[in-house]
Design the sequence.
């Protein structure tokens, strides 16, 4: 079958680590299911994999890709939960120290077929296309957990979302609006700020701009480039929920600001299988849909990876094997 694999690692030129070619069919262990992949959405995780972050050399070559929607062996339309962890671990699968994402230890989804534990399949509602459904398991699930579990936000409060063009950020704008929060967003580019407004942001600002008032919560996935602004934008006692650092880790945590203002910094990662099922239900009930930047054939996956690496994206890039 055709698949996209990381065959090496390069921090500077992640595309050079990508190889598209024929590979063996997946092994399907007991309790696992073979899914015919209909659509895959790209995530910044795929760029990190090609840079060698989270994917050490001894695991190469590895099929990359976390998200998929497709058809299982019974002919049912399914969405794949990308987190492989023990659901019985105290505190849940996300706290399991052996937790892994598809494409880290087991072959990922950028292929014609993928094997996954049967428990990781969530039914796809008929009203959701495969292209829309495949955007949910990573970026949208991460945004869902950040907003509705980790943030402590209640409807009517204000949330600032940094880096509006990104997959997680644009999902957070749509979900935040649906959740009844006042949604403010920042972006470096005017076209992305316009896009954030289209998605439902109540107000948009240039990255780093002074806000008219302080916010209750910041949704942070940009990292070093926005971290200081996130801290400065919070009300005393406010909370940053952080799930990523695309622009780099910030070695200066500005600790004095954190303790003088009694701020909270809360980590968040992906989401549980139950949360994915609730997210799918929310999308189905409200009619909100992931915005798709472009749909590409698997043979053109390099174009999508390049766009993500350069930040040239509005929402999600979808690949059709
Ligand atoms: N912990 C988890 O479970 C989890 C899950 C999903 C994602 N993540 C992480 O979260 C991050 C975002 O993921 P994604 O898939 O949404 O990535 P993405 O689609 O590539 O979005 C990245 C966004 O970050 C902003 N950005 C990048 N560099 C910047 C800079 N130098 N200055 C200001 N803004 C910058 C850009 O927003 P603007 O151009 O609009 O300013 C860009 O659109 C990644 O680091 C990813 O690894 C973590």
Sequence:
């Amino acid at each position: 079958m055709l698949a996209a694999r990381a065959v090496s690692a390069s921090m500077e030129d992640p595309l050079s680590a990508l190889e598209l070619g024929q590979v063996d069919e997946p092994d399907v262990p007991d309790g696992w299911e073979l899914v015919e992949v209909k659509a895959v959405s790209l995530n910044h995780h795929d760029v990190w994999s090609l840079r060698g972050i989270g994917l050490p050399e001894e695991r190469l070559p590895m099929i990359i890709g976390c998200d998929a929607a497709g058809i299982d062996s019974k002919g049912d339309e399914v969405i794949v939960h990308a987190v492989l962890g023990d659901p019985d671990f105290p505190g849940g699968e996300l706290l399991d120290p052996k937790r892994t994402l598809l494409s880290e230890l087991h072959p990922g989804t950028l292929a014609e077929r993928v094997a996954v534990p049967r428990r990781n399949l969530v039914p796809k509602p008929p009203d959701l296309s495969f292209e829309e459904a495949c955007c949910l398991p990573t970026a949208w699930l991460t945004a869902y957990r950040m907003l509705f579990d980790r943030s402590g936000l209640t409807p009517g409060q204000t949330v600032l979302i940094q880096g509006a063009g990104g997959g997680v950020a644009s999902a957070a704008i749509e979900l935040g609006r649906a959740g009844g929060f006042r949604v403010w967003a920042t972006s470096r580019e005017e076209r992305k700020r316009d896009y954030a407004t289209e998605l439902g942001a109540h107000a948009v600002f240039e990255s780093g701009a002074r806000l008219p008032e302080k916010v209750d919560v910041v949704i942070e996935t940009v990292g070093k480039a926005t971290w200081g602004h996130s801290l400065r934008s919070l009300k005393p006692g406010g909370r940053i929920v952080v799930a990523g650092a695309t622009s780099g880790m910030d070695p200066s945590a500005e600790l004095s600001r954190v303790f003088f203002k009694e701020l909270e910094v809360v980590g968040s990662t992906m989401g549980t299988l139950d949360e994915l099922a609730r997210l799918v239900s929310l999308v189905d009930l409200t009619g909100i849909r992931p915005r798709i930047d472009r749909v590409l054939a698997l043979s053109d996956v390099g174009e999508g990876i390049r766009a993500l690496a350069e930040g040239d994206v509005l929402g999600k890039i979808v690949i059709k094997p």
Observations:
- The chain has a mean pLDDT of 96.
- The two ends are 10 Å apart (CA to CA).
